[in-house]
Structures
1.
Amino acid sequence: MSALTKSMHPDEKYKAGKLGAQLAKVGVALAVVFLGISLVLTLAGSADPNSGHASKWARFFHAYVIGWSYIFSICVGMLFLVMLHHLVRGRWATAVRRVAEAMSCAFPIVFIAGLGFIIPLLAGYEDLYYWAHHDAHDPILNHHLHHKLGWLSPGFFAARYVIYAVIFSGLANYFHKKSKQQDESGDAKISETMRIASAPAMILYSLAVFAASFDILMSMAPKWFSTIYGVNFWASACVGGFAALALMVLGIQRTGRLTRSIGPDHYHDIGKWMFAFTFFWAYTAFSQFMLQWYGNMPEETHWYKYRLFGEWQWVSIAMLVGFWAFPFVFLLSRWTKRIVPSLVFFAVWQLVFHWLDLYWNVMPSYDWLEVAQGGTVINAGPLNGNIAYHHVGFSPVDITVWIGLIGVLLIGIGRNLKGNLIPTKDPTLPLSLSHEVM
Amino acid sequence: MSDHDTHDHEPVVTNGDGELYGVLAEYDTPGELVAAARKVRDAGFTDFDCFSPFPVHGIDEAMGIKRTILPLLVFGGGFTGTILGILLQWWTNAYNWPWNISGKPTWSIPANVPIAFETTILLSVFTTFFGMWILNKLPQVWHPFFRLERFGRVTDDAFLLGIEAKDQRFDLEKTTALLKDAGALEVERCYLETDPKRKNMPRWITALIVSSTAFALIPFAIAAKARNSHSSEPHIHIFPDMDFQPKFKADTASDIFADGRANRGEIQNTVARGTLDADDLFFKGKENGDWTQGFPKNIEVNLDFVKRGQNRYNIYCAPCHGYDGRGEGPIRQRLKAGSLDWAIRNLVAPPWEPGGHVVRMPNGQLFNTISNGYATMSGYASQIPPRDRWAIVSYVRALERASNSLQNDVPQADLRDMPAPQAPAPAGAAGSGSGSAAGGSK
């Protein structure tokens, strides 16, 4: 045996057994309890600081889009790891790749959960996306919006949602299935097949991530636009994905599985990815901000105006410090990534701030302005009116919906934690097991 | 220290006649090298090193090498870069030479971030690169082990471990035995040179370094001389064929043509294609030799035309004259913010006010002003096609009408939110008033 490779320890527990079912049970409990609480709070009317919405469900649905984007983004981040690993013939992550595959294969459940806001939209619900509101068609008030309403119409939107569901679920499922086939046959050619498939898959993936983030998140402020928005969302998604992977792997090790295969060097690399995307998020967020700040054109700056002044400025500052400066400085060190409790701290920290990032992207669009025009009241939509009246307006539903949807994600992951937790016959596994960060 | 005369029982290669420098052991595989390094370290040696063709995993730990402090240095270097980058921008743009760019503050962090980011990376990279060289004591052009033939294979297939004789634990026989026990294929001794002449750097290398350094200083010396002296000599032409090209520039002399000019003007009795512009009314704003009061016949003044005028006006005129035509555009604002101020023509002041003569101008004269400029305002004929210039004229008229309107002009339905009518102001000056009266040079 060469010193450079290592085979799996004979006593290693690498079978999932009942782990997946247990995780799914936890997920069901979380989803039922917390989504239930959210529904009760909403029906009782205590969820909603009602800002310019006719429906008392508006807060619930805004929180739902945030929570859904959150679980979606974690799958997006993990699918990236799986595909990149194949694309560049990676070695270090082979030991954790099956877990990442299982996480990315939560896509079908996630997309089913997303019907929670797609179906109301199709049924004519107007208080979530302003472009679905009948006043969005007002030619004087919304002439900026007028030419976008062909793209942003509930029917077409739902059709694209289905396309995203097919692309993401299909890609995740393909790489998971092929990898499991290799467990059976041990055929090294399967690795090669996946590597060839991963290049076009990556292109498809990135276009789908872009389009999905434009549709689901950016259209919350339908008059605003930023071409880098998709990259920024993706960076944040990968921070969340890698943080979740660290916790998931650690959780599996706590049950006595994979304890001999995954060590500090693997955590170190997961931490490095988390660190890299933390900085990349700040880089893209600043790129988006600086161009619009410099250009100083009202159709772009209004989006930042409501985030950099008034109550939301404190959330913006919290993002800058909490999602970037603090983790950036501390994750620079080798030891914060190698010492597991420290990595767990930063993973949890970044998972919270990744949620805050999505909250910051969506919730300022919650306050809609009603204006009098020629004797009638019409709704001018988000990001309008006096900044002093734009409140962060935190509601308990924001949190309960988020936790409930994390439950949904756990169901999705649990369903896929079956059989081997490690790609036992992947030719790069011995290299991954002996992986050492110099 | 061992005496080098006692080479008795081991077959060794002697390669010098000086002091013993150390011993060099060869191992078969990287794994054995790591194991040997661990043994040598455990025996308490500190002055030893391992040599291999490629990085060997775990060798640092086996040799007991402490982790490098390079990351900390790089952090310090990067941080210094951030601070210097921000200071540079503060000093150049906000302190030494304040310069207004697009109305942004001269000292603003968002604009400084990209530069500070680059300087952070620059100094991080410099610290990494030069720090690595310095910490590794590079460049090292020579090493005593170079004397051994075996060492030549270290970039190919040899895994070597060398112990220096200056190590306190060093004892030639015991150390050799230790290396052998650890599985060495061969242990070789290395001696230093005794001839002092051969230790010195060859004179020609010293001479080359000194002369090339002196040579490199010549451009700086020339630059220093040029900055501190005056000369009436012409420039040195390094590329004369670029400086003196066989072509004529505009408005220069030429011997080729009878009139002695390089310019070939318009040929008499010809008109260049597309430059006839015979319609005086449309192209000059003149009708029977006088400024027209109306519009050319091929123009229909309707809402679309005025809107086109508004669009062009907001692009070309508003920066100075302001969106409302009162001469308070962003350029005026910026001049005011600095120490300068200079009045810009108010286009909408009522005719009886000092600045009100734009309102009294005939349309043709207004068109002519847009085309050819007036005082410090330059002409826009090259930027705005004639039709768009007429559209701007129509929009300026609309602005004037709107600025000097009366309450009676507001549709009855929209009067709801307006305050109750006040006593009429003198002769039609009601409504929004005329703003600041601006005369002046523009």
Note: Residues 280-410 of chain B form a domain with the Cytochrome Bc1 Complex; Chain D, domain 2 fold (CATH 1.10.760.10).
2.
Amino acid sequence: MTAPLLCFEGVTYRYPGAQTPALSEVSIEIQPGEFCLLAGLSGHGKSTLLRAACGLVPHFHGGHFAGRVTLAGLDTREHGPARLGALAGVLFQDPETQLVMSSVRAELALALENRGHTAAAVARGVEEVALALGIDSLLDRTTHELSGGEKQRVALGAALAGRPRLVLLDEPTSQLDPVAGDELIGLLRRLNQEWEITIVLAEHRLERCLSSVDRVIAMQDGRIGCDSDPQTFLEWATKHSPALQTPAAKLFSLAGLHPAPAGVRQARATLRAHGLLPDVDSPPIDRPKANTKPRSRRRAKPTAALECSGVWHELRKGPAILRGVTLRVQPGESIALMGRNGAGKSTLLRHMAGLLQPTRGRISCAGRVALLLQNPGDYFVHELVAEEAPAQALAAVGLAAMAQRHPRDLSGGERQRLALAIVTGSGEAPAVLALDEPTRGMDREAKSELARELRRRSEQGQAVIVATHDPEFAAACAERAVLMADGCVIADGTAAELLAGGWYFATETARILSGAAGALLPEQGAALLDIRAGASTAIDGGQRSSAVTPGVAR
Amino acid sequence: MVFFYRRLPSPVHAARAGVGALWAAALSVATLVLFHPLVLLALLAGVLCAGAGAGVGRLLVRSMRTGAIVWLPIVVVNMLVYHEGVTVFIRLGDLGPFGQGNLTVEALVYGAVIALKVMLLMLITTLASLTVDPDELLRIVRRLSFRSALTASLAMRMIPVLAADAERLAEAQRTRPDGPPGGARGRVALLRAVVGGSLDRAMDVAATLEIRGFATARRAPRVSRPWSRHDIAFLVSAVAVLTLAVCGRLAGAASFNAYPELRAPVSASTVVLCAALVAAVVLPFTDRRGIDG
């Protein structure tokens, strides 16, 4: 057995001024060439563990540190992040704060120059990492003009330029659309397989990467809750931490099927083996095709909560960001606005809220449009929660008891609710509530809570429009989905129609069941499997064992 | 208004940063040593043509307009404060403790010349910040003083980041149903939020720098790169502009006196100097080979 590359021995760490430790008695060993996924709810110690691995804890953050962390034999108490940085590349959540130079080339070269490489070695390192990550066309671009996905790739390139043996990544896909997120995970898998780079990846959307990793380390209250292969982790999550279950695992758990699948392929193989999935998928005949024309032509009701008619947003001497968007939103309707980064979702929401004016076209609204932007922290300007929003609005989002706390002391989910209270206010309820990527960096529990809140508002007659990259969240909170690309609405239909039939913009349940019966969520999928199991049991005359017939098993 | 470098297909962008900076410095020196209005106008024309050749002409014009809040008051203040000169065009009489209030054509013209020089310096600085790669320039400086150069580099990088933060924050405040917090208290709260956000940003950037080896940083390696046609052209242009400015000054081809009476003779040598300066500034932009990327 080779010596571990990264080793934690009884590490306990408390941030300065904190009452409870962020890490408690953590002991793990990571071998060279492993691809580890770090799972856990927000605030359970994932980021702290990554920061301890690269020496930022305790050298940069201070606090109380006990135990020992070694990286390639170097004790992090004796060697600072600068020295350890040669062995471990780090990529944090927000690429904006990880780009420190003006041009991409200088950014990639910085770490190499700092470590005293020769000019030739720097030039070669920059070229190689740019080619490896496919960012060679960006080398002469300035960093502030890159898109979010490009910035994340450049930041990864900067972390990899020194050819580190270990790469630590803290939710790198949280700001990326599904396509860019999958590309990044694929890239990491390639780096791991081709160059044996050890990878430790902290992520909330486990379904995105579980099938690529060798091992899962689940954090619970700063401790290691589970350290195993993906399969065993899913079994553990089903019993001990359901919020960490992937949709596929939840589907299987609800349907009483075993083993819990690590990905779509494995899930489909299991279902096929159990006779619950047709051998060859045919297009589901009961699923109507998503309408690519705007709904307003079908439903010309005069009571629209909001109506966009041929809205264009054309930049002066620049491209058109919106190209004739027509969209009619009824009161009480909940809509998921989906599409790649740069498709025009955020711009459309800004137009709806009156922050931007269309260069052509018209937007009419039955009342106020409350817009919740991506970063809830941008709304907080006061010292107390009570000063940020009226008491009535705080009570409506369940924050009345926290009125005397500082807004920045709230958890991620609570911050989101406070921002919601700020934008909705206490007076007349807004006719439309628009949210721009509200689940960024949220764990599954907080997402479910937000989805419930949005459904409640929708039931009360408020139109809800959510721009999101997360199909699972879209399926949980929206009844209608609108897909945008290149500033246009390219598909508009029910969530069941739209989120059941794609590769990227589809839920995991829908991908497993090939979109059958428009089942998007594990609960709907399990119900469908129940029906299928019942049918096959009836055909077999009850010959099948209950272990493989989910309806019977439950 | 803040201007950022962006790599564009132009000869000055294709030249190495050191030469680009030297060229801008030569233009600044010429602006400082020459006083003749006609020569300064020729320089202005040259700089504007250079901006157009570099693909940043519109930005230069915007900068000139924005700069009016600096150069316009210079004309007015000089005219009101200086009472030298013999050609009075408005008699304000005795202004008590402020003395004579007569406004003279000489003070007006001298103010305009100083304003023209200030405007030129602003335009040259804008042109340099738009066309000279700051990272490459700082790499040169880092060989002399690493940490100061990196701090400068970071400061430059943080300007667009913080500008974007402030824009986002302002946008978020606009979405409040009752609008952004008003009054002095509201503004202080907003300012505190901006500063707090900047400090958070600074902490994250500092963590990134730590990991990239800032604490153990060594002297940047010397990068040797073959001299391109544009490197040579702009170096020659810089030397030519410097020579013309110094020689023109010494030879009296650009002599100008405002007081007590305006004296700005336009001789053949003045016209030649003007033409030569414009040519020296603009000619490097005529060669468009090898400028992409």
Note: Residues 292-297, 542-554 of chain A have pLDDT under 50 and may be disordered.
